Amino acid sequence: MVDTVMARPDYGVDAPGVVRGLTLGGIAALVLAGAGAWWHAIWPQTIFGLIGLVLLLEAALMMRNARVGKLRHRDRILDHVEWRGDETVLDVGTGRGLLLVGAAKRLDTGRGVGLDIWSGKDLSDNGIERTAANLAVEGVAARCELATGAVQNMTFPDGTFDVVVSNLCLHNIRGAEVRAQACNQIARVLKPGGVAVISDLMFVSRHAKTFREAGMAVTMDGPYLLGVFPPQRIVIAKKPL
Q: Which carries the bigger pLDDT value, residue 48 or residue 85?
């Protein structure tokens, strides 16, 4: 049972393998910089030192984003929605429920659904049990449900949701055609007049293009270079009535 008094939500570390690789690479570069060896005749010690410091800085920024930056970016994403409180919301690639929790706290009579394939490669300790625990700790479990599935193959009926949100999900889908299919699925499950707010670090202009081709009115926000790492842009796509 989750202790809702003592426990705190944990939204994990994005791309934990990348953070680990940056950290180990940075340490290795600093070790090479400090070791007297023949390769310094080709690559000066300062080069190894700079490489090591840059890699460790990137790892540190990703860890800061996991604990601080993405919480602030969540509010930035959700502020693009004109909330009434009765919306039905889908969080695509919900992970440990970062956006789902934030959206649920803006609802009165509405409900939220978190969809994910629960990949541990994309988020540390990613799993439906972890997400359910965060929902309970945050006090929004009664307004939310969780589902397992891929966004490009969603089975929700047409026009199910007023709002679809997503953060750092779509770029993980391999293949431009499959990513476009995912965007088209998001457009399909939106109600007329509904809005999708998608934040990502890669292929963002392509996401926007696909939404436009689906007949949606699209604007873009960002890029956000400070406070969130890696930098991200936001696509806001509204489905016509």
A: 85
List the chain domain ranges.
Answer: 16-71, 77-238
pTM of the model: 0.83
The pLDDT of 12-35, averaged and rounded, is: 82
d(C-alpha 92, C-alpha 151), whole Å:
7
pLDDT band at 10 (very low <50, low <70, confident <90, very high): confident
Q: For residue 157, what is the DSSP state? A: P
Q: How far is residue 33 CA from its own chain's centroid?
A: 35
The tokens of 102 are what? 């934030």
Residue closest to 56 by CA, chosen among 19, 14, 13, 16:
19
Which residues does 127 contact at the CB level (< 8 Å), separation at least 6? 118, 120
Q: Which CATH architecture has domain 77-238?
A: 3-Layer(aba) Sandwich (3.40)
